[in-house]
Design brief:
This protein is an alpha/beta fold. The protein has eleven helices and 15 strands. Strands 3-2-1-6-7-8-9 form a seven-stranded parallel β-sheet, sandwiched between helices. It has a six-stranded parallel β-sheet with strand order 12-11-10-13-14-15, sandwiched between helices. It has a two-stranded antiparallel sheet with strand order 4-5. The longest helix has 13 residues. The radius of gyration is 21 Å and the shape is elongated.
Length: 366
């Protein structure tokens, strides 16, 4: 990487780059080398979301949170204002992104791209949707997190270029289904935060109902959060404490893969997001609540790896778990793994960023 004073053709100026972006950034640097500089803050508006890529790969810049954390502004803008090709957060809360978009609009020969979700999580009718569209109008192009969002972006602004940097976790060589035969699998798996929006308590209740008729069934909860104590109390109240494993936070793919190797299915009882790429990449289907405000990565349901259940119904979830148990001999599912690898690898994400920064056409899967 070049020093901050050295001229660079390309730059990323983002709020954060969490640890799960490491493989993508490694691949991107492998392509662009010293022509790329990266400036990010230590943590986002939600201070639990922190930058976790290798420190030598970026320059840390300060972030100020304003108006009770509704907006943020980053320092270091002077280091990227003149960079020929710049990627910013597509986030209306970022005042520094707005400033750079406006200033660079009048600088000839300076391309500014915005990267993120095309619409807010609440959808295209949300109050902040026009602000995202305004940011895209000021920019010279958009980088989408998903393939379907690319179509939405082109529908909004048909003449503006759109690239896809699919929201991915792992490089191709790690997206290999664990070889454990299906009949040796016995657990329902959850990986994520223990927060109200994720409805992990519903999973515990649904599991307890299913386990009453499947005595060998187990539940593994990987993660942590504000609801952990309540979840442990609920497990005890339902009398399934000997069947539930609180595995704690696990980041490393190989350690996670050991849990996927015993899973009959993963679950998303609240909104589904990035974890879907992980589960399907490992060849494990996911049981997903139907009527939740899912992240755009839910497009991976097209792989055939998603089973839907009626939202907020522990009984419906239990029935889906029982169905997964009786289909476990089909695991790991190589077809959903291949579908996901072709679309959601770290290399695919890096390629989307690279082609966008270089202004090149992008080859997309069918």
């Amino acid at each position: 990487m070049k020093s901050e004073t050295s001229p660079s053709q390309y730059a990323l100026f983002l709020a954060v780059l969490p640890k799960y972006r490491q493989a993508c950034i490694d691949s991107l640097i492998g392509s662009l080398g010293d022509d790329l500089k990266i400036l990010v803050s230590e943590s986002h508006l939600d201070e639990t979301v922190k930058t976790g890529i290798s420190p030598e790969l970026y320059r840390r810049v300060p972030m100020a949170r304003l108006l009770r954390k509704k907006f943020f502004i980053q320092g270091g803008v002077q280091n990227v204002v003149g960079t020929p090709n710049l990627v910013l957060d597509l986030n209306p809360r970022s005042l520094s992104s707005w400033w750079l978009l406006v200033v660079r609009k009048v600088l000839r020969g300076k391309r500014t791209l915005v990267w993120g979700h095309i619409h807010p999580q609440a959808g295209s009718d949300a109050k902040t949707a026009p602000l995202r569209l305004a940011m895209r109008r000021l920019a010279d192009g958009t980088i989408s997190y998903t393939y379907r969002d690319r179509a939405k972006a082109l529908a909004d602004l048909p003449t503006e270029p759109v690239w896809v940097a699919p929201n991915s976790l792992y490089p191709l060589d790690l997206m290999v289904p664990p070889a454990t035969p299906g009949l040796q699998r016995n657990s329902v798996l959850y990986v994520g935060r223990f927060e109200p929006a994720k409805k992990v308590d519903l999973l515990v209740r649904g599991f307890a109902i299913a386990a009453a008729s499947l005595p060998e069934l187990r539940l593994t909860l990987v993660g942590g959060g504000s609801e952990q104590a309540k979840l442990k109390d609920l497990v005890n109240q339902l009398g399934v404490e000997e069947k539930v494993n609180f595995a704690g936070w696990i980041d490393e793919p190989e350690a996670l893969k050991s849990h996927y190797s015993t899973a009959i299915a993963t679950t998303s009882t609240g909104f589904a997001g990035l974890g879907l790429t992980q589960s399907l990449g490992f060849g494990v289907p996911m049981i997903v609540a139907r009527d939740e405000n899912h992240s755009p990565e839910i497009e991976l349901a097209d792989s055939g790896g998603v089973t839907w259940f009626e939202s907020d119904s522990a009984e419906a979830l239990a029935e889906s778990i029982r169905e997964a148990w009786h289909k476990r001999e089909q695991l790991p599912n190589a077809s959903i793994s291949e579908f996901t690898k072709k679309r959601y690898s770290a290399e695919a994400m890096a390629d989307g960023l690279r082609t966008a920064l270089q202004g090149l056409p992008q080859s997309l899967p069918d």
